[in-house]
Model the fold of this input.
Amino acid sequence: MRDMRIGLLTRNVDSWCSNQLCEAMRRRGIEPVPLRFQQLAAWVGFKRKVSSGSLTLDELDALIVRPIGPGSLDECLLRIDLLHRLYRGG
Done:
């Protein structure tokens, strides 16, 4: 049985808050997976997916979303749309 993996989606994975959340997860035997909004990629087609590098977010057991951060209207709407897609996908 593998350890639980929880993604931490944030604008700054090196911030104090992000580090504290990751450390709290480690103390409970959870593998934290820090992710930046800027690294997300969405794929459309027969099998829709959202990924960050080689990691598909469907591989995570849970996802904690921290502040979305600044951006243009289009960037913010895309980020929200990706979160809705993940939610609808289970």
